Amino acid sequence: MLQAIDLTKRYEDGILALDHINFEVKEGEIFCMLGANGAGKTTTINLFLNFIDPTDGQALINGIDSSKEPLEAKKYVSYVSENVMLYGNFTARQNLDFFAKLGGKTDMTKEDYYAVMRQVGLQEKAFEAKLKTFSKGMRQKLGISIAMIKDAPAILLDEPTSGLDPKASAEFQKILLDLKEKGKSIFMSTHDIFRAKTVADRVGIMKEGRLVMMRTREEFLEENLEKLYLDYMQEKSA
Ligand SMILES: Nc1ncnc2c1ncn2[C@@H]1O[C@H](COP(=O)(O)OP(=O)(O)O)[C@@H](O)[C@H]1O
Ligand SMILES: [Mg+2]
Question: Which pLDDT value is given to residue 123?
């Protein structure tokens, strides 16, 4: 569903942010990408979303090249950013309504919005509360519910658990597993090795624009993922 083929990005100022990255995320799979700040995780996501164009290679969504047919490719993907962009003076429901309509969904009722907010575990009293009163965890849940309304087969998440307290992070994990159960393909960048270990079918480690390690669930459960990660971080780049 999501496929990076020799995906490469050199920014205008000459920085090689991504150097021939290859990976695939199939239906019902969660792929977690680890890596220090500046490793290239957000660049990877931005290429799938065609916020930027690749220098070389391809980012395919459902087999569609996101830089050649961006509008078609975007039909199959939802995106939740690190700091979900929501309107502070709108209520949770009004935010959902705004983004649903922006995405072309015009037949959603108040009850539909309430149903999806319940699904992500947002408390009832938050449904009609203004966004500016929300905690980070609540905003993140609303971000996920916006993605769920679109009901795209692929979901890209950029550091979704950064800044969440342990309870919110655990709730978030449950939502991810629900989505996986529904057959979604999930690509998530994260610093949270613990969370990656619990949900990921596959884990990658990026370093200075290169994918230096990739392990299946079976493989990383047999090894010590924290140690692997630290070993790769310490190694001088070849
Ligand atoms: N718009 C940009 N212009 C130039 N360089 C950028 C831009 N965005 C990111 N970079 C650089 O690309 C590299 C990868 O960044 P990024 O993809 O944001 O990493 P990560 O999300 O893993 O922290 C870094 O060296 C960063 O400074
Ligand atoms: Mg980033």
Answer: 92
